[in-house]
UniProtKB/TrEMBL annotation:
Tagged with keyword Transferase: no
Record has S-adenosyl-L-methionine as a keyword: no
Source species, domain of life: Bacteria
Species this protein is from: Cohnella zeiphila
Keywords: Membrane, Transmembrane, Transmembrane helix
Protein name: Membrane protein YkvI
Amino acid sequence: MRSWGRSLQIAFTFIGTVVGAGFATGREVMQFFTRFGHWGALMILTSTLLFVWLGAKMMLLAANLGAKSYEDLNKHLFGEKMGVWVSQLMLIVLLGVNAVMLAGAGSIFSEHLNLSYQTGLLVTMLACFLLLRKGMNAILSINTIVVPIMLIFTAVLVVHSLNGPGADRWLTLRTDLSPWAAWMSPFLYAAFNLSMSQAVLVPVGASVKDPVVLKRGAWLGGIGIGVMLMAGHLTLSTRMPDVRQFDIPMGGIAREVGPWIHYIFVFLIFMEIFTTLVADIYGLTLQLQERFRVSQAWLTLLVLLFCFVAGQFGFGPLLSTLYPVFGMLSLGWMMLMGKDRKLPPRPPSVPS
């Protein structure tokens, strides 16, 4: 039972790391899947398989390498010199992603809580700074609480949408976008999210070590991500194309169900953004500590201040511009992960 409990913790952390600002709000699902119409479901299945396969491989590699941070994994994949350069690039990308997360939190405050965008940024920054002082155990614990509740409320939205008009639109929705763009999209999405998940999954793999627990966690987490992607796609398809006007489209749909469901779901969206932001900044500060002999608290503060400045561009423009570019940059990393065969000797598994 302890072994299964640990696997569920890993699975929820995997889901919580991917289900961030773009995913939870619906913007990411729209960008990578729903706008491609009836192809969306097959594209989601492709992404799910990639999450399961490469998520497990990443954590097992980290366990075998005893990796302290994602740079150790990149050095293994790309070689010593190139691995450092790739990690430098990923550091910049992670900073951009964290800025998107913080901007997403600001959009929730302004679009759904009638508070200012800047208030949302500042409140989220303060909460993030305080939680990060607790370390990895806090990240695992908060995802174990938030992700199951998010799964339940996502199911409520799906049932509501499928009982209304347009329930079969995910099968009939047409698109003018090219088939090439459609079939590149799941690979871009998986590559981007898996490369960003390194910041959290590499330390998780290195700390847990038990291959059975890690594989089970990757399977549960990858399938969970696929289920949530599909739920979001089904829900958004029923409201296309009008739902594209919202920065937080899932929040707009939740408003139709009722005020209580709306506010609870908006709070959960915020918590998903928050958990991903906390996890990414944790991994980022671990990486920065290897380069600069500065305390983690100061590094956390500097990263949050950078995200605050970048967040002034707004959530929608940041996500739609940065995420596809980051996906392209991550494709090479994903290809090397997929074909890597240089597994070092595995250490003895730790009793769970």
